[in-house]
Description:
Elements: E1 9-11, E2 18-21, H1 25-36, E3 53-58, E4 61-66, H2 84-98, E5 108-112, H3 118-125, E6 129-134, H4 139-151, E7 159-164, H5 173-176, E8 182-186, H6 192-205, E9 211-217, H7 221-231, E10 235-239, E11 254-261
Helix pairs in contact: 1-7, 2-3, 3-4, 6-7
Amino acid sequence: MAEEGEEEVMELGAYGAAVRLVEDAAAEVLLLWALNDPAARRHNFFVRHAALTLPIDSCGRHLSILQSPSSMSTPGVTGAVMWDSGVVLGKFLEHAVDSGKLVLKEKKVVELGSGCGLVGCIAALLGGDVILTDLPDRLKLLRRNVESNLLDGGGVRGNANVRELTWGDELDSEFVDPLPDYVLGSDVIYSEGAVMDLLSTLRQLCGSSTTIFLAGELRNDVVLDYFLEAAMKEFTIGLVDQTQWHPDYRSYRVALFILVKQFPKLMPEDPDHI
């Protein structure tokens, strides 16, 4: 245990490096905004929303992620273009695997709110058995990116499948039998109205061996506070320090959290009652 006033750090889930535990939602949000000053940082450092493609190298391959800038005019549609948090998360996974802190080979991975699909594609290139998910009207673009970047090129270490998933709905057996080893999400904490449905889905997906990675843009402190406060009732949460991210893909406008489900501790049996 950490001494009073000291930050507690520990390894969580399947990630082989220590992270700082989030112990108070409001204090965590205040600290992130105070240290990172996201409003003063450049938006979309790694992406261009007006471009039809996002070129990026990962896992020894050149990926070209299709975007649909015109779809951004539709209210509520944000997954038609890439955001910095997705690039950060994808390259973090690559760096963590390369540095021996994470193993995705032959692991079941579910990505929530996949959008354009970069994170899920990288997870598949790293050997994961990946299910990329999003709402029905987002799947066409997602499938095109999976097909053009993975299926057409060959030589992929893992697998990638695209499926419809609406947060809050009861999940099909494909998602939970067996439960995934990893759940991934980038820019999925964006509105208070979606938080409880997101947590419902995370709850269904998580077993004792499931590790969650969520990367998000620091754009709304109220929404992040609301999510952390609610999530801490069921999950242990850690903040992955930027020194553990890919050295070329770090941003003060992005935070990267790791979550593991809390389970009741089993009390040791009383030998007098055996």
